[in-house]
């Protein structure tokens, strides 16, 4: 075969490798979800973007803490590093599809035999090697690397949403704790006042000493409950400091502006059908990309069982000098074309293919489980919101009724018409009603935060990593 005909055949083979034999790009795995929700939507909710949801609260400190926590989060830093690793792997996977080029240079000075003139030789060359992707193994590897980049980017967004939800939950816990501490403080002061009145009445003989002792014991119990609650609030502040990396004294000063006040979120509605919502979940996207990557790796492992064809070549220039005469010229080689045919590897390639298929099945099962979990999380948050809304009016009515009953019993006790036991029973009923109402408000806020996270936190496909 002449040089020209060989080059023509080689170009034809390269064209085939780059077009007809190339593996297709990664496909998207379609989500199979229920056609509708089985839980009621929040009343007056709007279907809108959640990207700036935290800034729409009536408490600007919460948005500040979320931003600070995301900046300080080691989880987000790790997710960023994982993206960098995946992108490096993508570059490697794409590089093997192209020729590898190396430049070389050499110089020598020699005397072939005694009495012979000195000779100098210099040369420079470029060597190239290229594995022809005849069966799509290299392209499949590049596709798997690309899918994993997209999965790691989705993981980063999932980490961002998780950090925001964790900070918001901790902040809500703190505000609910402060509210409970305020009520326990008022309760403790009321108990102390009753104890003082009982002591004075016992000294003049109007009340028994036992009654005064019981009132004093009740005051001590109320004070202990207050101290315990205050300690719990202090621990929650320190948790926020750890999450946000804020200076503690500065954070405490900021917290005083909204003490004991639970932030109020903007209500929103989820997508009308579950399948639309699944497209907003970065964790579902990551699982789906892992399925695509695993599928590409199956194709890659299977293609490795077929022959591999590698082409090499060199182009260079040389200069030889002897006896004052110089000889310049170009040199080149095309080839060899190396064909590697697997004959016997003790089952290694077959085992690798089987392992890749098993990883693909595992990735698919993980994806399906992620879909079910996503639906369950949204449904649970919607059920909790509905339940909290239904119980809210009853909880407030109970607090109002217990307040009236307590004040009436306190007035009767002061006039000597009600016993201390009756007063303490009314006090316990009021405190329990207030605690229940506070817990219900905290539960409702927690459900909104859970729904925010379950709805993907405002993520959309192709959202850039900041």
From TrEMBL:
<protein>
    <submittedName>
        <fullName>Efflux transporter outer membrane subunit</fullName>
    </submittedName>
</protein>
<comment type="similarity">
    <text>Belongs to the outer membrane factor (OMF) (TC 1.B.17) family.</text>
</comment>
<keyword id="KW-0812">Transmembrane</keyword>
<keyword id="KW-0449">Lipoprotein</keyword>
<keyword id="KW-0732">Signal</keyword>
<keyword id="KW-0564">Palmitate</keyword>
<dbReference type="InterPro" id="IPR010131">
    <property type="entry name" value="MdtP/NodT-like"/>
</dbReference>
<keyword id="KW-1134">Transmembrane beta strand</keyword>
<dbReference type="InterPro" id="IPR003423">
    <property type="entry name" value="OMP_efflux"/>
</dbReference>
<keyword id="KW-0472">Membrane</keyword>
<dbReference type="Pfam" id="PF02321">
    <property type="entry name" value="OEP"/>
</dbReference>
<feature type="signal peptide">
    <location>
        <begin position="1"/>
        <end position="22"/>
    </location>
</feature>
């Amino acid at each position: 075969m002449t040089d020209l005909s060989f080059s023509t055949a080689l170009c034809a083979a390269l064209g085939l490798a780059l077009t007809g034999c190339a593996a297709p790009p990664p496909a998207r795995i379609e989500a199979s979800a229920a056609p509708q929700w089985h839980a009621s939507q929040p009343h007056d909710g709007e279907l809108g973007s959640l990207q700036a949801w935290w800034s729409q609260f009536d408490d600007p400190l919460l948005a500040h803490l979320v931003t600070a926590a995301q900046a300080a989060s080691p989880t987000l830093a790790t997710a960023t590093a994982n993206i960098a690793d995946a992108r490096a792997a993508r570059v490697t996977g794409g590089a093997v599809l192209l020729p590898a080029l190396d430049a070389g240079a050499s110089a020598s000075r020699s005397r072939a035999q005694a009495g012979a003139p000195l000779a100098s030789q210099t040369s420079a060359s470029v060597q190239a090697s290229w594995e022809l992707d005849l069966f799509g193994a290299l392209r499949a590897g590049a596709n798997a690397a690309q899918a994993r980049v997209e999965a790691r980017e989705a993981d980063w967004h999932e980490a961002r949403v998780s950090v925001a939800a964790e900070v918001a939950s901790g902040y809500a816990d703190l505000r609910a704790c402060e509210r409970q501490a305020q009520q326990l403080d008022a309760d403790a002061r009321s108990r102390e006042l009753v104890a003082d009145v009982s002591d004075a009445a016992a000294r003049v003989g109007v009340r028994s000493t036992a009654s005064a002792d019981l009132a004093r014991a009740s005051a001590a119990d109320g004070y202990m409950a207050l101290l315990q609650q205050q300690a719990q609030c202090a621990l929650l502040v320190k948790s926020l400091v750890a999450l946000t990396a804020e200076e503690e004294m500065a954070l405490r000063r900021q917290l005083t502006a909204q003490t004991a006040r639970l932030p109020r979120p903007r209500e929103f509605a989820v997508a009308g059908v579950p399948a639309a919502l699944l497209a907003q979940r970065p964790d579902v996207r990551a699982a789906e990309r892992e399925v695509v990557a695993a599928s590409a790796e199956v194709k890659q492992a299977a293609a490795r069982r077929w022959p591999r064809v590698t082409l090499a070549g060199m182009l260079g220039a040389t200069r030889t000098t002897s006896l004052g005469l110089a000889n310049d010229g170009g040199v080149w080689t095309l080839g060899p074309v190396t064909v590697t045919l697997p004959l016997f590897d003790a089952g290694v390639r077959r085992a690798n293919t089987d392992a890749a298929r098993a990883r693909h099945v595992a990735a698919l099962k993980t994806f399906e489980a992620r879909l079910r979990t996503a639906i369950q999380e949204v449904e649970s948050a919607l059920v909790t919101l509905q339940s909290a809304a239904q119980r809210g009016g009853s909880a407030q009515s109970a607090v109002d009724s217990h307040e009236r009953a307590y004040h009436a019993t306190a007035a009767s006790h002061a006039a000597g018409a009600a016993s201390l036991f009756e007063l303490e029973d009314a006090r316990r009923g009021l405190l329990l009603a207030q605690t229940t109402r506070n817990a219900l408000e905290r539960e409702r806020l927690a459900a909104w935060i859970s729904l925010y996270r379950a709805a993907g936190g405002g993520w959309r496909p192709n959202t850039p990593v900041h």
